[in-house]
């Protein structure tokens, strides 16, 4: 069994993620990534933009026209292609959701609320219209998106992105169960996120590690890193670590692994994975965390602030500005300011 270095693992992950050579189109990225987590929509969009060739996807509305927003692994909100979302719903069908217990605790009738929502969605509705229609009842029925999450994970409900809103759609037809689904999804995970461990894969899908069957791993490459077994598929011989990488909040590289030391040194992890579940947006220089960044959107204006523990070179600042400008152009925003500060 071949032993790997941290640099080899990280270069494979960055390359397979599209951060050295971007994906040509979004419809290639989303199934490969098994979705892009996006509870913060602007950061979800940023994490998409950093992985696709924006010269081929200059109009954001056209780029996202076939994408959906739905709840999947870890009961979180993702951009998906529809087929991957349907597969994820099947794969995670036995997982207990928190929504029924929440409705019981609030003395709410989940069956009645579900039937009412289905009737309201006999045709697609804007999310903002639903908020108005439900009035005071919205705050309880949709706390943490409860009713949306519940039906999305059953393969019944999803959203579509709009520039200033989201369209909510109900899907009534039953979803077919693909053959060899668990093997297919695990191979997809290790192809895009590998090399990674079984513990990493279990964390990504939100399942117990013992649920992963050895028969689903037979076509994967096997490696060793610090005494742990790592798996990968589609090894990239020309993988490299870019000089500058920007990761938005909840970037796939920040949410898809149990073992975090490969990307972030242990003494820096508390500044990335915060209490209350927050995850910072990061700037990496040659594969090492150099600092964090934030974005602020106000109407048509967008601003960025980068805070680093060591001053960036002129070239690194120029690359960072270019990434932010490309994103702002893609979402049709005007940059107000890009600032760099030392922590």
TrEMBL record:
Pfam families per the UniProt record, alphabetical: AlkZ-like
Q: What InterPro entries does the record tag this protein with? A: AlkZ-like (IPR009351)
Q: What is this protein called?
A: Winged helix DNA-binding domain-containing protein
């Amino acid at each position: 069994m071949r032993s790997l270095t941290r640099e080899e693992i990280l270069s494979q992950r960055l390359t397979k993620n599209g951060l050295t050579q971007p994906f040509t189109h979004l419809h290639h990225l989303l199934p490969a990534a098994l979705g892009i987590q996006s509870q913060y929509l602007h950061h979800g969009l940023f994490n998409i933009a950093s992985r696709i060739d924006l010269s081929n996807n200059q109009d954001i509305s056209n780029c996202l026209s076939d994408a959906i927003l739905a709840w999947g692994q870890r009961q979180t909100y993702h951009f998906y292609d529809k087929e991957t979302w349907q597969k994820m719903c099947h794969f995670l069908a036995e997982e207990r959701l928190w929504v029924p217990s929440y409705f019981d605790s609030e003395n709410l009738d989940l069956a009645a609320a579900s039937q009412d929502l289905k009737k309201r969605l006999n045709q697609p509705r804007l999310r903002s219209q639903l908020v108005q229609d439900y009035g005071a009842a919205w705050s309880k029925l949709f706390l943490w998106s409860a009713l949306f999450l519940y039906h999305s994970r059953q393969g019944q409900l999803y959203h579509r992105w709009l520039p200033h809103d989201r369209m909510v759609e109900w899907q009534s037809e039953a979803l077919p169960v693909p053959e060899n689904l668990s093997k297919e999804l695990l191979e997809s995970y290790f192809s895009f996120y590998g090399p990674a461990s079984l513990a990493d894969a279990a964390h990504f899908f939100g399942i117990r590690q013992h649920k992963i069957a050895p028969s689903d791993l037979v076509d994967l490459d096997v490696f060793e890193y610090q005494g742990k077994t790592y798996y990968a598929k589609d090894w990239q011989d020309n993988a490299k670590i870019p000089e500058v990488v920007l990761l938005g909040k909840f970037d796939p590289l920040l949410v898809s692994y149990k073992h975090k030391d490969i990307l972030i040194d242990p003494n820096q992890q508390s500044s990335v994975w915060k209490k209350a579940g927050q995850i910072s947006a990061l700037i990496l220089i040659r594969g090492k965390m150099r600092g964090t960044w934030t974005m602020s959107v106000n109407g048509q204006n967008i601003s960025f602030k980068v805070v680093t523990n060591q001053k960036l070179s002129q070239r690194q600042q120029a690359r960072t500005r270019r990434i932010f400008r490309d994103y702002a152009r893609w979402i049709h925003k005007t940059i107000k300011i890009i600032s760099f500060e030392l922590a």
